[in-house]
Amino acid sequence: MRRFIAVTTLAIALMYGCAQGALWQFDRYQVRHANNELIRLNVSLPELNEADLSKLPSSDIAFRKVNLSGSFQPHHEILIRNRYHEGKYGFGVLTLFVSETGKKYWVDRGWVIAGKDAQTPPVIRPVTNDPIHITAYARIENLESQVRGSLIALPGKSSSQLQTWNAQQSIQTEPIYFDLISANIESYNPAVPTPLPELSDGPHLAYTFQWILFIFLVALAWFLVIREDKRSQAEKL
Prior knowledge:
5-stranded mixed β-barrel; 25% strand
C-alpha cells in the first residue's frame, strides 16, 4: 500500500508538471502567433508621421512605416555585434537621430560586413548632421521580445537593449527605435536593410503536444508499475 501511494503521488506530480509545461508553451504560441499577425497587418498599413507616435498605442505603431524629418548625429554611433547576412559575419550600424521636434531615436542603418580581422573596422556609409527625411520601420522593444519567443524565460531577467545603447552613449532616447528603409539622400539608403522578424510561430505548439504526450507516458508507466505490483502480490499468495 505504501508503494502504491508513493508511485501514485510521484505520477501525479510528474503529470502536473507536464500539464504546466504544456500550458506555458501553448501560451507562448498564442502570444507569438498574435504578434506575427500584428506584423503582417501593420506593414501593410499607411505610413505614419512622428506626431502619430504619441497618439497611438504600441500595437498600432510596431512595424509601421514612419516618416521622420531631422538629422543624424554621427558622433553617437554603435556597432551591434553578431549580425549575419547570407552567412557572413558583420555588424548592425546604429546611429542616433534627432527629429525636428527635438526627440531622440536610435536608427538601425542596416548591416555591414566585418573587416578582414579583429583589428580592421568595418566600412560604414558615412552620414552627416544635415537635415534629412527618412522612412523607417518602428520597433517596440517589449513586442520584439514576444515575437522572438525564446523557449526559456527567466523570471526577473529583463534586459533592455535600448537601456544598454543609451548607457553606452550617456543619452536618453524615446522608447521606440527604427530600422531605416530609405532616405531622401540616396547614399544614406542601407545596402543591406535590417529585415523584419521571421514570421514563424516557432516550435511552441509542437512542444505543447510533446508535454501532453509526456502526461500519457507517465500515466502508462504508472499503470504498468501498479499492474506489475499486483501481479507480484498475486503470485505470492
